[in-house]
Each structure stands twice: as C-alpha cells, then as structure tokens.
Specification:
Helix 8 (about 185-200) packs across helix 9. The chain is about 75% helix and about 0% strand. The longest helix is centred in the middle third of the chain and has 38 residues, at about 95-130. By secondary structure, the chain is mostly helical.
C-alpha cells in the first residue's frame, strides 16, 4: 500500500494478502516451536488440577495442538498487530495517526492483561470452586480435552472483554455514547456486565463469573472517566 493511502482497490487487496500470508507464516513458525514445548505449556496450564486424562487415541495430540496454538497466538500477536497497523495507517490523516496508534496498541495491552488475569487468577480460582463440590464419594477425573477447552475459552473471553474501556471511549469519540447518560444508568450496565460474564464463561459457578465481571466493572469506570475527559476537551 502506498504511504499516502493511494492505489486502487486491487492494490490494497494485494497488499492485504501479502501481509496476511506473512502473518500466517509467522504464526505457523510459532505453532511449530510451541508444539515442541507443548508438554511444558500443558503442565503450566494444568497446574491447578495436576493430572489430566485422555480417553480417545487422538485426544492427547489434539490437546497439545490446542495449547500450542494458543501459545503461538499470544507470542505472535504483537507481530500481527504491527502488520495490520501498517496496512491501516496510510488510510489515516497525519493528525489521526497518533491517537489511533495509542488506541491500537492499548487494545493489545488490554488483551494481554485479560489473558494473564485468566491464567493466573480466573482459571485457578474458578476450578477450585467447581472442584469443591466433589467429596469422598465424588472424585474428579478431568478429561484433558474438556479442561483445555475450558481454559482456552476463559483466556480468550477475558482477553476480549478487557477491551471494554476502549469500546466506551471509542463510542464516545464517535458521538454514539454520552458519558453522562451512561453514568446515570450505571446499575443497568453492571447488571448487563454480569449477564455477559455468565454467558461468556464456560462454567456455571458464580465465582468465575464474578471474577470476570468485577474487573470489567472497574474497566468500565476507567473507560467512563477517560470518556468524560475526552468529551470536556472537545467542548
């Protein structure tokens, strides 16, 4: 893509195709490397429960592949983010690039914070609560595929929903959201956050849902505060 944003639609499409192919190649290389160390990655992911079991011939391979895919995504995400930014940047005016760059890279940081929150707090605490319903006559025998799917969904859910404050700020800047109106309906927003947390989390326990909802409420307040500052600055 030309630096001034010019060129035909097909030029832009060809440029996007080249960048996507490079991103795919980088992810593929990361996937191979991550699969080599996937036993260690799986051991880290399964630390809250200890041993996992598989009940199908291909399940162990698929579980290691899923764990490697998540690790490769997290490791190569900054490169993918950079490639997409380089593709989008020429379409922006010079005065738009600085705030857009700030938003773009803040989104990446928030995703990592959400993923880390899930890995180090959400999954261990959620599992501790779920497994506490067992007892002497009800022992846990966790299937590797089910557990890994549970963990991966939580990581992606926390990572995605941690983008909430950026969404609030972006809608404010676009004139689609009034921070004062949002503040007046704070109770409804909090209820909505708990509903979203209940839908997104792959478990049914209230503790895991609350672990997701509480940081979202805090992030909502942060986004609301930033939105008010932007609104005052523009008036």
């Amino acid at each position: 893509m030309k630096e001034d944003g010019g060129g035909s639609f097909w030029d832009h499409l060809a440029e996007l195709r080249r960048r996507l192919l490079r991103m795919l190649a980088v992810f593929g290389a990361g996937l191979v490397l991550a699969y080599v160390v996937s036993p260690r990655l799986l051991s880290f992911l399964a630390r809250p429960v200890g041993s996992l079991y598989f009940f199908a011939p291909a399940e162990a391979f698929l579980v290691r592949l899923e764990v490697a895919a998540l690790a490769a995504l997290l490791a190569t995400l900054p490169y993918h983010h950079w490639e997409l930014w380089q593709f989008l940047k020429p379409a922006l005016l010079p005065r738009e690039r600085r705030p857009a760059r700030l938003f773009w890279w803040t989104a990446l940081l928030l995703f990592y914070l959400g993923a880390a929150f899930a890995l180090f707090l959400g999954i261990p605490v959620g599992l501790r609560v779920l497994l506490s319903f067992g007892g002497p006559d009800l022992q846990a025998l966790l299937r590797a595929g089910d557990y890994v799917n549970f963990a991966l969904l939580l990581v992606l859910a926390f990572g995605g929903l941690f983008e909430f404050p950026l969404l609030v700020v972006a809608l404010t800047l676009l004139g689609l959201l009034d921070p004062a109106m949002l503040a007046r309906h704070r109770r409804e927003v909090i209820v909505g956050v708990f509903v979203v947390a209940a839908v997104i989390t792959p478990s049914v326990d209230f503790v895991t849902q609350t672990l997701l909802a509480l940081p979202l409420i805090i992030l909502f307040e942060v986004g609301l505060w930033i939105s008010r500052r932007f609104q005052r600055r523009s008036t």
